[in-house]
Amino acid sequence: MLPTVLNRLFQPLSFKNKAQTQTFAILSVVTFIMLTGNFSLFHGILNIYPLTLHNLPFLISLALFFTSLTAIFFLLISHGKWTRWILAAFLLIASQSAYYMDHLGVIIDTVMIDNIMQTNRSEFSSLVTSTLILRTFILGVIPAWLILKYCPQPLSFKLELKYRLRAILLFLLAIVVLVIPFSADYTSFIREHKIVRFYSNPTYSVYSAIKYVTQQSSISVHNLPLLKTAQDAVSLDPSTSKKELIIMVVGETARADRFSLNGYHRDTNPELSKQDIVSFSNVSSCGTSTGVSVPCMFSSLGRKKYDKEKALDQENVLDVLAKHGIEVLWRDNNSDSKGVATRIKYEDFKTPTLNPNCKGECRDVGMLSGLDKYISKNKDKDMMIVLHQMGNHGPEYYRRYPKEFERFKPACQTGELRDCTQEEVDNAYDNAILYTDYFLSEVINFLKKYDEQYEVAMLYVSDHGESLGEHGIYLHAAPYMIAPKEQTHVPVIAWTGKYFDYNLQDIKPFKDAAISHDDLFCTLLIAYELESKMCEGKNTILTKNKNKNLNSIAQSVEVLDSNLD
């Protein structure tokens, strides 16, 4: 019964040969994908142009416009015996892309593809849900199987080409006819609503994939020597001063507005509030994903000039510190350092091999294990220790903290965030912030043991924020140009010991100053008393403080001179 129905479906009476039938199969797949895989696209369009009698003609035009573009794309790439395999593959791709766009509001761009390529096994498992499997099976696997089984072969290349070209020309003509009556509306749509076009499935994800492969190919064949950075840097630290011991915590997916230190109504920072710290309230991230923000914040490029290839081809701030005799260590409880720790000592704390706190999931606090021995071994050196957190990595926030930190209840217990209420999502996320609060307090307490021996300090910087359902968006990695503030407004916290050159009282006046990840490079150089022309005029907290101290000295000298006169 089913084979008979399907054969009739793919062999309409109006088509005289198999080449035309295969074209019909392609257009059937296009129609299916537009109807089942482009909800986010049409939802975005309806948000801009509500369904009214006035907007209806333009809405129909837009729907046919995107369908025509998708049809042209498939007609161009589907040829010969490979047609069935290409269509089947794209049915699977479109079904999965649609799931993540519809359920999480993400866009499949180059950044998202880079995140996918860098996702490890545990991260991947948290993203595979029963809904994804069911949706992929119904809207991907079954249609793909039907196409593989029933899509006919063309009779000849010439005949196939003839009908493909004819169909493409017809769709091009259709696009012209669709656009001309609404030229002003299309101009406005193209100029003002670029983000909506990013949800076109699967054409935009294919475009992004091609762009990503091109970028990676360029990087892989690029073998130029590593570019030097801050070559003029000189140390201003006298040999008689105490050695510096700084721990920098690279946070994961933490939002500034979820820290009670920054005014959040819940007490998510009970431990840090007991410490004498500075919480910077107006900090912007370099990117909206770990793959961009982490290498960007340690580079000298800054957000506007950041390029992955350029960043990999030049020294980052940790390389510069290491060149000046500072012992640098990177400990990672996340995916990896994203290329930052390539040339320094790196330790993986994602497994019980090094991390003693791995019940169910390896905890961030385990990265403090063995640091006493490391410090003792390098006691005659300045030290920079980077701890890369698992932090609030989503969507399974409930896994990011031990059960005793589940203070806010009920907490969402699944990666299917849309299946939870907003309260449950917020509770799970805030519980994970509670654990970060505990971890950072433990880092400070650890450093206090060395307050008499070293100039000690802790700096916490989150890589990016997170959307928790605002505007229907979840997780992160939105294109920066349209990313909501929830993904770019990040927490930064500083603590210093009593011998550190820059004390908290001098830093606190700048806690609400507008700063960003761009300021980290020079902040770390200045923290280790390294002076470079590239940091002159940079608007970092420590630079301001340094200038303040220099101005005070200059004023004292002037007063002394006037008294002598």
The quaternary organization reads as: single chain
Largest sheet, in brief, is: 8 strands, mixed
The chain-level mean pLDDT equals: 87
Number of strands: 14
Shape: elongated
Question: Class of the largest domain in CATH?
Answer: Alpha Beta
Q: What is the CATH homologous superfamily assignment of the largest domain?
A: Alkaline Phosphatase, subunit A
> How many domains?
2
Could you tell me how far the N terminus lies from the C terminus, measured between alpha carbons in angstroms?
110 Å
Per the CATH scheme, the topology name of the largest domain is Alkaline Phosphatase, subunit A
Strand content: 5-15%
- Strand order in the largest sheet: 5-4-8-2-9-12-3-13
Short recap of the structure:
The chain is α/β, with parallel strands linked by helices. The chain contains 21 helices and 14 strands. The chain has an 8-stranded mixed beta sheet with strand order 5-4-8-2-9-12-3-13, with helices on both faces. It has a two-stranded antiparallel ribbon with strand order 1-14. The protein has a two-stranded antiparallel ribbon with strand order 6-7.
Topology diagram in text:
Blueprint: H1 2-9, H2 18-36, H3 39-48, H4 56-77, H5 83-104, H6 110-117, H7 121-127, H8 130-150, H9 157-179, H10 183-192, H11 194-197, H12 203-220, E1 234-235, E2 244-251, E3 278-284, H13 290-298, H14 308-312, H15 317-323, E4 327-332, E5 345-348, E6 358-359, E7 361-362, H16 371-377, E8 383-388, H17 422-448, E9 455-462, E10 467-468, E11 474-475, H18 485-488, E12 489-496, H19 504-507, E13 515-516, H20 520-527, E14 530-531, H21 541-564
Parallel strand pairs: 2-8, 2-9, 3-13, 4-5, 4-8
Antiparallel strand pairs: 1-14, 3-12, 6-7, 9-12, 10-11
